[in-house]
Amino acid sequence: MSETFGNFDEAQAQLDSWVQFAERRGEAAQRAVDRIEALTVEVWSPRREVRVVLDQSGLLTDLEFAEWAPTESPGSLGRAVQKAHDDALLKWRDAMDAIADEEYEDFEDLRTATKESAHAGLPPMLDEDNQ
C-alpha cells in the first residue's frame, strides 16, 4: 500500500474521498427514491371527457369520466381514454427523466440506469406517435 499512496496521509485522504463519494451517491439515490415514490401523474383527454391518473410506476390508478361522457360513442370514449393514457405516460416519462437529471447530475451511471428502466416499460409506439 505504501507504494501506491506513498504514506498514510495520502491513503487516508483517498479513503475519505471514497467515503464522501459513496455518501453523496447514497443521498442522491434516497432523494430520487423519495421523489419517485411521491410521483403521480394526472391528465385529462383533450375534450376533458376522461381523466387518467398514473402512480409512481406508471400504472393506471384512477379513471374518471365527465358527467356528459356517456353520451359519447364507445369508440369516441375509447379513443379519449387511449389519448389521455398515452399523454399521461409521456408526462410520467418526462417526470422520471427530470428526477434522474436533477438528482443524479453527478452520477451518469445512475442517471442512465434510471432513465433506461423507466423507458423500458413504455409501449414502443408511444414515442413514435408523439414526436
Number of spatially distinct domains: 1
Percent of residues in helices comes to 55-70%
The major sheet is characterized as: 3 strands, antiparallel
Structural class computed from helices and strand pairing: mainly alpha
The CATH architecture is 2-Layer Sandwich
Radius of gyration: 22 Å
Overall residue-averaged pLDDT value = 91
SSE order, as H and E? HHEEEHHH
CATH topology: Ybab, Chain: A
CA-to-CA gap between the ends?
55 Å
User: Could you name the ranges where pLDDT drops below 50 across 5 or more consecutive residues?
Assistant: none
**Secondary structure: number of strands:** 3
Strand order in the sheet with the most strands: 1-2-3
Report the CATH C-level class: Alpha Beta
Shape: rod-shaped
Helices, by number, come to 5
Organism: Candidatus Ruania gallistercoris
InterPro entries: YbaB-like_sf
Protein name: YbaB/EbfC family DNA-binding protein
Care to describe what's here?
This protein is mainly alpha-helical. 63% of the residues lie in helices and 11% in strands. It contains 5 helices and 3 strands. It has helices at residues 2-5, 8-37, 74-103, 108-120, 124-129; strands spanning 41-44, 50-54, 60-65. A 3-stranded antiparallel beta sheet has the order 1-2-3, with helices on one face. The mean pLDDT is 91.
